């Protein structure tokens, strides 16, 4: 599978209606983020169509987003009303904005869409440069689960209906921590393919990337309600501070 910064979004023109793929956590996420920088400035890496940025702006923050896909950015422009949200087209590994921010956040495993360790390190370093002193970087991601795979692959069923099914097929490269994923919506009148290439990081690897960029982890919980993170947690929200 080839990678470019627009690929994910351009293959998902129906992103806002992909209920089966979305997290439906906008309310909790925007509340959590707003409490970290009340009335402040925020930057979202991979803003998409504004699923969380728009409710966050309604909570009083000024939000800028970086987005690689013109279709996603157009979706955001359609969704935005009075909210103070603006989008910059570019690669979020570069964090191509001039301003500094009280908060930078990257949610829904979007960080994993950077395809190499180098680009992920670059992203965290550029993020640290765009944070005000004392500013916070928030990442929401899953804990990789090797039990999912049988050998170097997995196939799974996400949904089954009367006239449709959603299945996923993955190929896993353990050494590169990279997964090629194809989610397929099967319907009587045709199938739709949603490809994705991602490179996962372990929670400890993200901590190390942050440390190398001069950021200190202040918390890691298993969700937006500050639930404790344990060895059994499948996902997390990590918060790093620029000292
Ligand atoms: C999983 S979606 C999440 C969108 C939004 N944050 C949300 O939670 O609904 C990932 C987003 O990141 C964008 N994206 C992926 N790689 C990117 C890159 N290298 N630079 C900028 N945007 C990128 C995709 O186009 C997509 O809009």
From TrEMBL:
Coiled coil: none annotated. The keyword ATP-binding does not apply. This is Methyltransferase. The keyword Methyltransferase applies. Keywords: Methyltransferase, S-adenosyl-L-methionine, Transferase. Residues 43-135 form the Methyltransferase domain. GO terms for biological process: methylation. One of its GO terms (molecular function) is methyltransferase activity. Gene3D superfamilies: 2.20.25.570, Vaccinia Virus protein VP39. InterPro entries: Methyltransf_25 (IPR041698), SAM-dependent_MTases_sf (IPR029063). Signal peptide: none annotated.
